[in-house]
Design goal:
The longest helix is centred in the middle third of the chain and has 22 residues. The protein is of the alpha+beta class. The protein folds into 2 domains: about 80 residues, Alpha-Beta Complex (Outer Surface Protein A, domain 3); about 80 residues, Ribosomal protein L6 (Outer Surface Protein A, domain 3, Alpha-Beta Complex), CATH 3.90.930. Helices cover about 20% and strands about 35% of the residues. The radius of gyration is 21 Å and the shape is elongated. It has 3 helices and 13 strands, in the order H-E-E-E-E-E-E-H-E-E-E-E-E-E-H-E. A 4-stranded antiparallel sheet has the order 11-12-7-13, covered by helices on one side. The chain has a 3-stranded antiparallel sheet with strand order 1-6-5. Strands 2-3-4 form a 3-stranded antiparallel sheet, covered by helices on one side.
């Protein structure tokens, strides 16, 4: 059995989970509502304040989907209660970010023009300082993808370390040219 798949998912008070007839799981909480279709023959049942994810047999496909489904549903529960955050740091002279409302950013990244980034539904931006961006939302997948897309605009380069990086990310530096 999958160690991850067999672990029960605790459902906190204030969160309701509904299973639809078309294998759709809907989780409602204080932050909002998330829905996802459960793949294949994986079943989810609720016992009290816990969710149990079960697979019908030990076929390779079902084993692969067992732990994945449990993780996705657990992330939905955490998302509607607490939400997810990704922090980005901007390093470089003249590189900065400015908020254009809760769902838009304007970035100066050394290009001849400012770069505008719009957030998809359910994702918001905060800019506590000109060199820090906080991406917030209840869908872990969307938050991570938006943060990765922002980072992709100017990846940290290995010689001076300039660019956009995740908070706490270590950039491996290269020595550069040796002087004679």
């Amino acid at each position: 059995m999958s160690r991850i798949g067999r672990a029960p998912i605790a459902v906190p008070s204030g969160v309701s989970v509904a299973m639809g007839s078309d294998n759709t799981v809907t989780v409602k909480g204080p932050q909002g509502e998330l829905a996802r279709t459960v793949p294949g023959a994986i079943t989810i049942r609720q016992e009290g304040d816990e969710l149990l994810v079960e697979r019908p047999d030990d076929q390779r496909q079902n084993r692969a989907l067992h732990g994945l489904t449990r993780s996705l549903v657990a992330n939905m529960v955490v998302g509607v209660t607490e939400g997810f955050i990704k922090e980005l740091e901007i390093v470089g002279v003249g590189y900065r970010a400015a908020a254009q409302g809760p769902g838009a950013l304007e970035l100066a990244l050394g290009f001849s023009h400012p770069v505008h980034v719009n957030a998809p539904d359910g994702v918001t931006f905060e800019v506590p300082s000109a060199t820090r961006i906080i991406v917030k939302g209840m869908d872990k997948e969307k938050v991570g993808q938006v943060a990765a897309d922002i980072r992709k605009l100017r990846k940290p380069e290995p010689y001076k370390g300039k660019g956009i990086r995740y908070a706490g990310e270590r950039v491996v530096r290269k020595a550069g040219k040796a002087a004679k």
